[in-house]
Specification:
transport, 5 helices, Cys-rich_flank_reg_C, repeat, ion channel, transmembrane helix, binds 2-acetamido-2-deoxy-beta-D-glucopyranose
Length: 300
């Protein structure tokens, strides 16, 4: 089926991208995906694999996949949103590839019927945040690719059901810190990709570094985690930064506790918040939270 002509076709180039007729045509094409039974028209089916790669799809109505479909390939389309029920009833799916689209927001219940899913590829979309329930019930998931998106956080709870996960990529996002507690459920993780993020190697990353060391100790692998901040550690791989460098964080916490009791001079406890003196410990980097009693009006 060759309904999806290339934009460069002579005589059709002008206004091709925005032509209502074309969009209508695409809608009809994608609408055919919703037909019950058989292979969706815009796709190629082979055994239990349904391949809808690179079909220029802008939208996706509820899919009726051939019974027993285990692989659904949707990469290299133009999908920017998916209906909450897009994969309802696709309980036999084991592999779902949505890479190289423009997805910027996924409904929290999108994958909830996919209890057999073992591989999920969301690489190279425009995701900036994920609903903490998004991966709920994906007990069979082994492989999760979230690389090349705009994620700035991994919410607590997101990975809670993924104790079977062995491979996870968060590479090339906008992450600057991760919470250890969010990763603790990943008891079987073997490979973690974290490169290409603007890591801030300060006290906020200390607990996660400890978790990473436990992962390495178990024989797991983590790729390079290069610090962007503080300046002193820029370009350094956090795996090579000795844990002792983070002892300062404990000291800082102690000082904060002490400061609350009014026993530590504010100038010392609040030092991390101001301009960085050249002789200060490198891990501080001016990123220390100025949580002290100094601002409360009870200081000396
Ligand atoms: C269908 O899949 C089989 C095995 O996976 C492969 O050998 C064959 O080439 C595929 N056929 C088409 C038309 O893609
Ligand atoms: C899922 O299956 C149920 C029962 O067969 C049906 O009523 C429902 O319409 C289906 N939902 C979708 C989105 O296909
Ligand atoms: C990401 O997706 C866009 C749009 O499909 C594509 O043009 C680009 O080549 C992809 N980039 C990578 C690194 O795969
Ligand atoms: C897994 O797929 C089988 C059919 O292939 C289905 O009977 C079963 O309900 C699915 N399991 C889950 C948890 O969806």
């Amino acid at each position: 089926m060759q309904l999806l002509a290339t934009p460069s076709k002579r005589g059709q180039g002008r206004g091709f991208q925005s032509s209502p007729a074309l969009l209508g045509l695409l809608y009809v094409v994608s609408g055919l995906l919703g037909r019950a039974a058989g292979c969706p028209s815009a796709c190629v089916c082979n055994g239990t694999e349904v391949d809808c790669s690179g079909r220029g799809l802008f939208s996706l109505p509820p899919l009726s996949l051939p019974a027993g479909t285990s692989t659904l390939l949707l990469p290299n389309n133009r999908l920017s949103a998916l209906p909450a029920m897009a994969f309802a009833n696709a309980t036999s799916l084991e592999r779902l590839d949505l890479s190289n689209n423009f997805l910027d927001n996924l409904p929290g219940a999108l994958f909830h019927d996919l209890g057999n899913l073992s591989q999920l590829v969301l690489r190279n979309n425009s995701l900036t945040a994920l609903d903490r329930d998004l991966f709920q019930g994906l007990l069979q998931l082994r492989w999760l690719d979230l690389s090349l998106n705009g994620l700035s956080a991994v919410p607590l709870g997101l990975l809670d059901d993924l104790s079977g996960l062995t491979w996870l990529s968060l590479a090339a996002n906008r992450l600057h810190a991760l919470e250890r507690a969010a990763f603790e459920p990943l008891a079987n993780l073997q490979h973690l990709q974290l490169g290409g993020n603007p890591w801030e190697c300060d006290c906020n990353l200390r607990d996660f570094k400890h978790w990473m060391e436990w992962l390495l100790y178990r024989g797991g692998r983590v790729d390079a985690v290069e610090c962007t901040l503080p300046k002193d550690l820029r370009g350094r791989d956090i795996r090579g930064v000795p844990v002792e460098m983070f002892n300062y964080c404990l000291q800082l916490e102690d000082e904060n506790v002490a400061a609350k009791g009014g026993q530590t001079p504010c100038s010392r406890a609040g030092a991390g918040a101001g301009a960085q003196p050249s002789g200060s410990p490198p891990v501080v980097g001016g990123r220390a939270p100025p949580r002290t009693a100094c601002g409360s009006g009870t200081g000396p």
